[in-house]
Specification:
Layout (H helix, E strand, L loop, with lengths): L7 H5 L7 E5 L8 H14 L17 H12 L5 H15 L9 H10 L3 E5 L4 H11 L10 E2 L12 H15 L3
Parallel strand pairs: 1-2, 2-3
Length: 179
């Protein structure tokens, strides 16, 4: 059996070696997306609209602010966007208290770190949620704080690539200038 160093094929072909990996959080590392729909329905019901739902394309990978704006556009609720977003986040955080990892997610992070990759997490969730979920996964020590990019770190969130660019810039700077 021959062993090889990961990335040597890329180097032989003149391609740069992979030095970093970014992970999404909700629905990739943690099974939390169902709680998003529950938060939307529960909070909108508080304002008298029972059974309201948005398509997953309007909620998954989106900030609570963007979800709140979409709710207002579809329902004509006269509730402040920030208030609506805060209420959904509060409901969602309570609902995800016992959330479970996607099968294999913690192992994938550990394997990537063991392979020498610098790791980052990019999410439309706030940074506090990223930190909490990484603790629950037992991998906080493998992902530097500066490589945890939440919604508040960028002006445009997913699907815009801004958060990924911030994370990659920080990770590559850390590789090129280790502490």
């Amino acid at each position: 059996m021959t062993t090889r160093t990961p990335g040597t094929d890329r180097l032989a072909r003149g391609l740069p070696a992979v030095r970093a990996a970014l992970f999404d959080l909700d629905g990739t590392l943690i099974d939390s997306e169902q709680h998003t729909e529950e938060a939307v329905e529960a909070v909108v019901a508080r304002y008298g609209i029972a059974g309201f739902a948005l398509p997953a394309t309007e909620t998954h990978g989106r900030t609570w602010e963007s979800v709140a704006k979409e709710i207002r556009a579809r329902t004509k609720l006269k509730v402040d966007v920030a208030e609506l977003a805060a209420a959904m986040l509060e409901h969602w955080v309570a609902g995800t208290a016992h959330v479970i990892p996607i099968p294999g997610a913690p192992e994938a992070i550990r394997a990537a770190a063991a392979g020498g990759l610098r790791l980052g997490v990019v999410s439309s969730s706030p940074r506090s949620v990223i930190d909490s979920f990484l603790d629950k996964l037992g991998v906080s020590d493998l992902i530097e704080a500066r490589a945890r990019i939440g919604a508040e770190a960028v002006r445009a969130t997913k699907p815009d690539a801004a958060a990924c660019k911030v994370a990659l810039t920080d990770l590559l700077a850390a590789i090129d200038n280790p502490r």
